[in-house]
């Protein structure tokens, strides 16, 4: 389960679904594809207030997007975006989550190197220059930077009037940042009550710092939404995760989502799968409702 597999899986998915290689090249991340996706509108969403914010950390100033219900204080959620970083699609997803009653912070994990956006508006992983630039940015992040950032971001959230500090915090991650949620939950076990990883890459490895080895340090309930293509590459990962959560006595929903390709949840992804993304979103809301108390 790794972002390096995204390109190969995406091409395979698009060709299998009848899209020519020429058409595949036309669809790119950002406004071009986002414009094809109608925003989700629900009658029960709360009015929200949104802003671009700067957060001071021990390593510099992190730029982020903060959105919350316009009235009251609410449980907070820290959102780690995928390899493309903070961008309009994740702002839209954060705004939708805030409309369900959460104070949501979507961060730029690359702030030490570059403020968002970190990729061109029509960035495409198929382009070698774009791919190399993103992988270089990815290489600047380590378990240590994730830990220090998680602490700084949660401290910032807890200082906001719109955050109810009596309620536990949730965290979500996509692709490369699925493991970031686990490091966040392990670094702040008394504060983080729920985590959700969507097609997370590298949750189970043979390295001594494998994210799944952090589960005994957590006190968070979990949703692990696995792409079918990732499961085909690493079929044993789901069983390792289930066993680790069970041994730690932490409730965890670990599921392979049929017909999905690595990267299927962000609304601007080429392999976006609406029905399965909506299912995963719904399961996340169920988790947060029960765990962020």
List the helices and strands and how they pair.
Elements: H1 6-16, H2 21-26, H3 31-34, E1 48-57, E2 60-69, E3 76-80, H4 88-99, E4 103-107, H5 128-138, H6 143-158, E5 169-174, H7 178-187, E6 192-198, E7 221-227, H8 228-233, H9 237-247, E8 252-257, H10 274-291
Parallel strand pairs: 3-4, 3-5, 5-6, 6-7, 7-8
Antiparallel strand pairs: 1-2, 2-4
Helix pairs in contact: 6-7
Describe this structure as you would to a colleague:
About 9% of the residues have low confidence. Strand 3, helix 4 and strand 4 form a beta-alpha-beta unit. This protein is an alpha/beta fold. The protein has an eight-stranded mixed beta sheet with strand order 1-2-4-3-5-6-7-8, with helices on both faces. The longest helix has 18 residues. Helices cover 36% and strands 19% of the residues.
